[in-house]
Write a structure and sequence with these properties.
MFS_dom; 16 helices; transmembrane helix; about 0% strand; MFS_trans_sf; transmembrane transporter activity
């Protein structure tokens, strides 16, 4: 029995070492940065809907605008950051600038007070940081792992990222428990301190993958625009836009769940914990599964899970089993789609313009998401929550069909 236990332990350790070697140490370093940064970000994200709707009494339409800004308004900076990273061949430096801006923005939330305009400006700055860092970070992942392991590499990274997202709301809850239910400034300051640690980890442990300088003209505005003439890139961009238009913000999902189950405000941050736990457990296995069976089927199955979540929110059913199912499916949706879409994009894009191409696809999705959030907030206010979320489910079904039509010839 003892020898058998040792054998199983050694086998598990060998498997862990093989996974580490396959995806690369740089992927784990980037995952560590994302883990810490997501603790910082999700501390704020978890309390933001309550802070804005219940604390500042914004309407659903106003919240939809702010939520759209939170993800989409700075989308063009993704393009700027991606192009600049390719141009100067300094992906780590551009990513570090983005992480730093987002960390400092948490202090801006303390200074904004109850001004909706100031809060919107600070949120825009925070998302500017995310816009700058996301494409260079994902490009580093594609350059740090073999092409046939990209699904697993993104899965491992997203699993570590979601571990931070899982912990962030718990840290926010602990801060509020220690400082008082309305002590949002304490959450913002703690978030800044943790974000600063993430920047330090990036500086110390992430290696930039500097490739040979490409020939003159390879990285230029004209070359970047030429990406759109590539059929594979064009299809991916259109698919990303279609999918972004069908997706509403996490805050809306959690607010609808809160209304359905009448959850106390103090427990609101735990809703994100349930989603991120499922994401954490499923991201790496689903990334590896996508490498084996095809990334497009896994991507579309993830959006099928999103349809189920929206239908559960629209249904008259109640109860904790339904509640747990909705959060689990929501986490599975993210695990099946977030890194998998980037793994689909990696092999299609030329290495010299890898970051620019990734940022182009992410920008299209983010801008579509901005429109979706604003429209959903208006639909909720005009038609009511049930009709709005039912319409969203129909849109996701249409997006699945459209994405399949666009990408069915993909071989990644």
């Amino acid at each position: 029995m003892y020898l058998s236990t040792i054998g199983r332990r050694d086998h598990a350790q060998a498997g862990s070492r093989r996974t580490f070697t396959a995806v690369g140490a740089n992927v784990f370093a980037l995952g560590s940065v994302s883990l810490v940064t997501d603790i910082s970000s999700e501390m704020v994200t978890a309390i933001l809907p309550v802070y804005l709707l219940l604390g500042l009494h914004l309407s659903p339409a106003a919240y939809g605008l702010v939520d759209g800004l939170y993800t989409g308004a700075t989308a063009l900076l993704r393009l700027a950051g991606g192009y600049l990273a390719d141009r100067v061949r300094g992906r780590k430096a551009i990513a570090g600038l983005g992480y730093g801006i987002s960390a400092v923005a948490k202090l801006g939330l303390m200074a904004a007070g109850s001004s909706a305009a100031a809060i919107g400006a600070v949120i825009t700055a925070d998302r500017a940081g995310k816009g700058l860092r996301t494409a260079p970070r994902d490009a580093l992942i594609t350059l740090s792992a073999p092409e046939n392991m990209l699904g697993r590499a993104f899965g491992v990274h997203r699993a570590m990222d979601s571990a931070g997202a899982f912990a962030g709301p718990l840290v926010a809850l602990a801060v509020l428990a220690a400082a008082g239910a309305g002590a949002f400034d304490a959450v913002f300051f703690t978030s800044f301190c943790i974000g600063a640690i993430g920047v330090l980890l990036l500086v110390l442990f992430v290696r930039d993958r500097r490739t040979a300088r490409p020939p003159a003209g390879t990285v230029s505005p004209r070359a970047a625009l030429a990406l759109l003439r590539t059929a594979g890139v064009r299809r991916l961009l259109l698919a990303a836009c279609v999918l972004g238009m069908s997706t509403i913000g996490d805050g809306f999902v959690y607010l609808l769940l809160q209304r359905k189950e009448d959850i106390a405000t103090g427990w609101f941050p735990l809703l994100a914990v349930g989603t991120n736990l499922a994401y954490l457990l499923l991201a790496a296995p689903l990334g590896a599964f996508a490498d084996r069976v095809g990334r497009l089927p896994v991507l579309l199955a993830g959006y099928g899970g999103l349809v189920a979540v929206y239908l559960l929110l629209a249904s008259p059913l109640r109860g904790w089993p339904l509640f747990a199912l909705a959060l689990g499916l929501y986490g599975a949706f993210y695990a099946s789609t977030d890194g998998v879409l980037m793994a689909l994009a990696g092999p299609v894009l030329p290495e010299a313009l890898r970051t620019t191409g990734i940022s182009l696809i992410q920008t299209g999705q983010a801008l579509s998401y901005l429109v979706s959030s604003v429209l959903f907030g208006l639909a909720w206010q005009v038609w009511g929550a049930t009709t709005a979320i039912s319409a969203a489910a129909v849109l996701v079904l249409a997006a699945i069909a459209g994405t399949f039509a666009l990408l069915r010839q993909a071989r990644a």
